[in-house]
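Q: I'm writing up a methods section and want to include an example of the input and output format. Could you take the sequence below and give the corresponding predicted structure tokens, formatted cleanly so I can copy it straight into the document?
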Amino acid sequence: MQLCAWLTVATTVSIIAVLLLETVIPLPGHPAFFQEVSPLRFFTEWEWAPTASGDDKRYGILPLAAGTLMVTVIAAMIGLPVGLLSAIYLSEYASPLTRSILKPALELLAGIPTVVFGYCGLVFLTPLVLQPLFRNLFGIDVSRFNALSGGIMVGIMIIPLVSSLSEDVLRAVPRSLREAGYALGSTRFDVSARIVVPAALSGVLASFLIALSRAIGETMIVAMCVGNRAVATLNPLSEMQTMTAFIVNLMSGEVSAGSLEERSLYAVALMLFLSTLAMNLASQMVLQRYREVYH
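A: Here is the clean output for your methods example:
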């Protein structure tokens, strides 16, 4: 067991070492990415075109970050409230029979491969729902690849994660707190909203942050639904590109090994790693800050 534990640590350290060696720490005959591309340009420029020809190459990460943020925000607007409300229903309202049916169904939804979500967004959600809806109601054309469909499908994907984690922490709240609320004349809604959810706030917020980390790192859905056009825009109906989608597209293309274009992949991967690491650290801080211990 100790060997397995150290194996996970060694794997994480190895990933970090590879990312740093390709981006920050130079080796003899193998310059790092940030030796050839200024970090100031990387973090401040609004153009991303590493595979362009000649002087047209651009290495500004902001368009990819904007696409990732857009998809994550849309996913959060769908997945977090639906997941939390589902958890409250399963914990406080559903009968044992209903819960025995819905709980496995949600867990089954979590087991669906993400490529299936991406395919549904590409061939069903965009052409059959979003495009007719916006065209008929608002006269707006929706691109076949757009951030809205990707965000919706990612939001649906994280619903089981939020619901399962939140439902577990809600059911862990002592029944004596519920009974005290009912003894004071509170309704079931009052007990759920004003007693149970605040008592389990740390676990609920942690589930939110874990789900957002999952949304940031999602690959297949955004690669299939959002597109490959690295632009920074506030229009969710247009084509965009996320950090994970860029990594997929670059790996599937023809890029010379050891070239600056290939090392840009590691720079984006490092940004993605730091983003998810920050979310995980934030979830740990939330747990420590709002954690309630009941005896």
